[in-house]
Specification:
The protein is of the alpha+beta class. The chain has three helices and two strands, in the order αααββ. A two-stranded antiparallel ribbon has the order 1-2. The longest helix has 14 residues. 0% of the residues are buried.
């Protein structure tokens, strides 16, 4: 939980636009998607996953893909 709070604090400092509150709501209401769901979605629409990079201990995931 500290990691998420730190993330929200950093967003507030970086944006200074109330975006931190929006991020908090987003996380609380579970609009985020698990990586295993995204991986399958990408594959089903014709992408191959070339690289997966986890940021902040899997708080964010970056996919580098190629369209088949």
């Amino acid at each position: 939980m500290d990691e998420i709070n730190n993330f929200i604090d950093n967003i507030e400092k970086a944006t200074d636009t109330g975006f931190g509150k929006e991020a908090e709501t987003h996380i609380k209401e579970e609009f985020s998607t698990y990586d295993w769901i995204l991986k399958e979605m990408l594959k089903r629409v014709g992408f191959s996953i070339d690289k997966v990079e986890y940021v902040n201990e899997k708080l964010f995931t970056c996919f580098v893909c190629t369209k088949k």
